[in-house]
């Protein structure tokens, strides 16, 4: 997106000036071609016969070709003139909105952000200007993209037609065929330039590359997993043939050259570099084409096969780890092949990540890049070194290539889902030997450097879990399927004496038996954010409470679902922040179930018992997971109990922070996880290193009682006034219950919690709602889970190894 200073510097009139120059040049061109034809007519008085007829035919052919060029030039001039008008309009509107905001005392940043100025600008005014500027910028970006594409497409047509003048070309061929031919010629020139180090040729080709521009609506469609059939065919054909003819070496040489030029301060090189990388994404994407067949299917959609064969060989040759498919590197079998392989892998990753946001690689390219990334970093027999054949390779030396590959491949959520579940699609099946254990598990076990943090692998799952204005049901279903595969993978037990994924993540063999959270806290937090939206489904809550789609509890947790759920909770507890997010979400969900129980008062419903049971399951999973993680860390019974108590207390505090009073919005599990994962836990809520805490059972019960009371009194507000003797009671504000956290801060928390629980039970009893109907079901379900971690040995046999 262009910045505000860049837009201020725009001169849309220059497009009209260019159109005028083009029109003048075209007029001169057509005049000259007309003179050639007229001159030939003059010669006919003295020249006859077969030679003259041949000359007349050739001149007629070239004049016809020139006329077609003139037509395309006219279209280009029209595109420039129209673009000048469109950009002038949206630029003026955007700058006018900025001026209006600044005149009201707002500050508008270079990135179009709007904030209050030094004066006392009203918040509503700031919000109004922010909305107005945002709309104007959206229009500006859309128009800029569409104008750029129209001009680039028209310019490509001119070049394709112009190349036909003078060579007696068949004029019946469409211009798109000429674009493919130009791409092939430029690709061959690239290959030659790469072989001979010809920077001048690389610069010449870079200057004539057409831009790869998708409109905002097309980018939105791609992000939603929809098909896009409106990419200009001439541009698409050009890049497809360019890559094929250039081969791996030509493509990488062009990328290196453009990057060097960009670093040197050439802005045009940066745009060309984006176009080259964008093109790699589009020609490989199976959901992108330039039209549809009569049956509605995409015509010649993108494909991994559109990339050069030796580039695909680079990406898909895996010589390390359980997913390896080769024992030698691409090449002639020389030692230099290994050096070239790792260097070219680095170069391709650096080029691919230059693709602009929203440009998605195809499913097959994405899968192959992810599988290669995993293969690159798998340790061999020596610590800190990979298991690649040939000379030793340090795991740190391949990390940047892994990151670059994953940054690109992670954009395609369909591909990630297939790799997590192990199920391809009919059009892009996975090979029979693939398993998530071979690819996803190594990425979880890799020791990512702390200064850069873990790559973003699973954030999108939680973000797409629940349908909404920005998330379709189809995206929610895909996220649910991905979450199913992720949970199944990380909670999987061993078979036939083999160590399962869960046990390996609790005691990583190549990392001094550290746990997942200890080795990769940021990645563990990503997993927490991905799985917490599915707590309702894991708890077997009533259907009315489940807002996600596509998730299968049976597939995710395995044949013994309780063990699977406890394993999931155990892994989340290996990192303090992930633990707070996950357990805080559990407490919040059980509070919501209590509130829902209260809302059902006086109504016919079969969900009351299920709400209590779901609460008990979640609390049982939380308690067993906390104890399991403590035992895995080598703590004795007393220390394990103390640590679990401290974490429970923190979870209660987290849920308190996200709970709100009646009438306000209730946080969803996704809200809970994203808030505490992204923002971190406030210092006063992170004393997990202190092992001496008393379990605040009253805090849990008080929150549930509060939610239930709030729900009932929302339907029967008179119940509060009669009980508290009017609105003057400290627990009330405007006749309604204050927020839970406000009530708890009025006095000692333990005392207030006990009072609140007692008062709620009494008031609910007056209203005819039996509090114990909820608590009895909760206690029974929670009690059924109490035997899984009675001591350390029990944990290791039942949870860690899954023994009977």
TrEMBL record:
Pfam annotation, one family: TPR_23
Residues annotated as domain TPR repeat: 211-460
Taxonomy, superkingdom: Bacteria
SUPFAM superfamilies referenced in this protein's UniProt entry, alphabetically: EsxAB dimer-like
Residue segments, region Disordered: 287-306
Name by which UniProt lists this protein: TPR repeat domain-containing protein
Organism: Rhodococcus spelaei
